Amino acid sequence: MKKIFLSFAVLAMSMAIFTSCSDDEAKKLVEIASINDDNSIQAVVNNNVTLAPNIKNADANTSYSWEDGAGNVVGTGATYAFTPVEAGTYKFTLKVITSDGRTASKAFYVVVTEDIRTITFEGDEWTSLIPDGQAYGVATLIYGEDAINYLWTDAQTQLQGGLTLAWGGTYGFAEGGTVVSNYIDANVTEHASSDYQLSVPVSNGSNNFAVVYCDASIQFPEGESHVVKSMDIAPTTYLLGEMKNGGYGKALTEEGDYFTLTLTADNGNTLDIDLARDGEILEEWKTFDLSSLGAVNKISFTMDGSDRSSYGAKHPKYFAFDNVVVKF
């Protein structure tokens, strides 16, 4: 009789142990997998981001809650998608609750940077646009059909520039526009003339740059607007020689003298950049912040100065620009 009782006791204990193991198996901890060591992902402004962590041991009736860094619930699914509009680090915490009360939570970080693209005018495709000569009267300076067809487009930003064709293109660059150049000439005393109109007096460390004459513009494709954060600007050799030494106009070396480049955005915002002011003359490359113009489709360039005739400013309306930084 004792042996039989013992057998029933052993059987009951075995069943209890088996039942307990089965319950433990059914109630495993909920696990939310990490993305990487610091549980962060990289993203870019205005690009969609989806957080889709691997969740283990959830059941069909599990509930999910995504909270932002301020504790606000921003999503209730197993994944969360959003589009950041500003750079910064964003924190999101996923909380998981199964139907039988098992819970888990984990914080995720999204590090968002701006989509910044810089136009450097470097490469064979740009060099091929540089005229073989830079003096008026030289056919290679872009005249006629060459002027009409002269257009540059940056592949990564789609920013465009070219000649204005203000008088139909017959006179090419003399009608105004933006052309690619690589001419360097520091002789502002003897070479301050239109024969050196594509030269700058000093290199900024790169090979190519753009030269603007008279009223001109640059623009993105129709319907697209972006913030141009900055660009490097320098006077041309011709302009610098005239501003320092005089020529057709006076030397801009006195109080009250100025020669100003004005950037006008299609949204109505403007920015004045002094190439000369009260005896201070820009003689080398300088980076200027253009972000105050806001999101633009088109930027127009005009120049004016204190020494004027009935035709406007006497000083040659040239300047060079490079390293155009665009925010997407």
Helix run count: 4
Tally of distinct domains:
2
Rg over alpha carbons = 33 Å
End-to-end gap: 88 Å
Helix content: 10-25%
Low-pLDDT stretches are: 1-22
Indicate the CATH architecture of the largest domain: Sandwich
Describe the biggest sheet? Answer: 7 strands, antiparallel
Kindly state the number of beta strands: 27
**Annotated CATH homologous superfamily of the largest domain:** Protein of unknown function DUF4465
List the keywords.
328 residues; 4 helices; mainly beta; seven-stranded antiparallel sheet; Immunoglobulin-like; five-stranded mixed sheet
Question: What report would you give on this structure?
Answer:
The protein is mainly beta and 328 residues long. The protein has 2 domains: 29-114, Immunoglobulins (Immunoglobulin-like), CATH 2.60.40.10; 117-327, Protein of unknown function DUF4465 (Jelly Rolls, Sandwich), CATH 2.60.120. Helices cover 13% and strands 39% of the residues. It has 4 helices and 27 strands. The strands form 8 sheets. Strands 10, 13, 16, 18, 22, 23 and 27 form a 7-stranded antiparallel sheet that branches. It has a 5-stranded mixed sheet with strand order 2-9-8-5-6, with no helix packed on it. The longest helix has 25 residues, at 2-26. Residues 1-22 have low confidence and may be disordered.
